[in-house]
Amino acid sequence: SFSYSDKYFLISSSQNAGINGIFDLNNKLLDLTVNNGSFISFGLGGITSANNTSLSLYDINIDLAKLFSYLNFDNILSVENGIINGDIMISNSLDNPDFSGSIRIPKPIFRLPFLTNHKLTTDELVLNFNQNEIEFEKTVLNNKNNQKVEVEFDFMLNKWVIDRIEGSVKTQNPNLFPIKITTPLFVLQGNVFTDLKLSFEENIFDISGTIFGEDIDLNSSVSSFTGIPQNQLNELQNNSESIQVQTNLDIKLGTHASI
Q: What are the b/e assignments for 171-203, b being 16+ CB within 10 Å?
């Protein structure tokens, strides 16, 4: 809720949301805290004028496992353990902001169901903010068998929107990494070595590099197409029209591959 008194806006909410703050209209100063007592807390303070912004998002503490329990992302990402903490500065202007700072997630445990059945862990995930770029630091992810995959991404911002994504995915050691990719049209399962470069910009997804598969199963059939409801076929067609995929891949299959 908001209330106004003598050039000050007072901001408050229920205890469940835990939002409290004040905005000084004369000096364009914001002092806001959020703490719902369960999974999220942070402070936000500083100058918020349109052409002279200096905001600090500080003492960030977000329990991702609890947060994701309220979200419907299970087919994409599920988190068993992970606490976000850090500080981010927002400067320049509200229309064209610059960012600085970093956030960290120590000892995360999570799943990417669209990619693999295995839990993934690492010592720490780090995101660094530098003007209009967010750097996802090079990180080695491990599964329970100590099979490793190295990932690294950069997100380029245009104002408040992600404009371009660049990254790489590479298996780090001689052991292959187990994947299971399920779509309405096919299932791809097996152990792979990858050395891939990825980018996404203006609805064009570009992927290049090497994939080597051992004990690969690729299952698809005409019946898998005819059994898809019409609304799903329409959605697939719309997605294919809205996002173009460009590939330059060297794909090699091992002796135990089956299609």
A: beeeebbbbeeeeeeeebbbbbbbebebbbeee
In this structure, the dihedral spanned by the alpha carbons of residues 174, 175, 180 and 181, taken in order and rounded to 10 degrees, is -10
What one-character-per-residue DSSP string does 186-236 give? -EEEEEEEEEEEEEEETTEEEEEEEEEEEEEEEE--HHHHHTS-HHHHHHH
Model-level pTM?
A: 0.77
Torsion of CA 19, 20, 25, 26, to 10 degrees: -140
Using an 8 Å Cβ cutoff, are 81 and 44 in contact? no
pLDDT in tens, 14-38: 888 899 999 999 999 999 999 998 9
User: What's the half-sphere exposure (Cβ side, CA atoms, 13 Å) at 15?
Assistant: 1
Q: How many CB atoms lie within 10 A of CB 57?
A: 20
- For the chain, report the end-to-end CA distance as a whole number of angstroms: 59
Strands 8-12 and 19-24: antiparallel
Residue 41 CA neighbour count, 13 Å, CB half: 7
Both tokens of residue 10?
Answer: 């007072």
DSSP 128-143: EEEETEEEEEEEEEE-
Q: Which residues partner with 209 through β-bridges?
A: 196, 249
Q: Which two tokens stand for residue 242?
A: 């809205």
pLDDT confidence band for 222 (50 / 70 / 90): very low
In this structure, what DSSP letter does residue 258 have? B
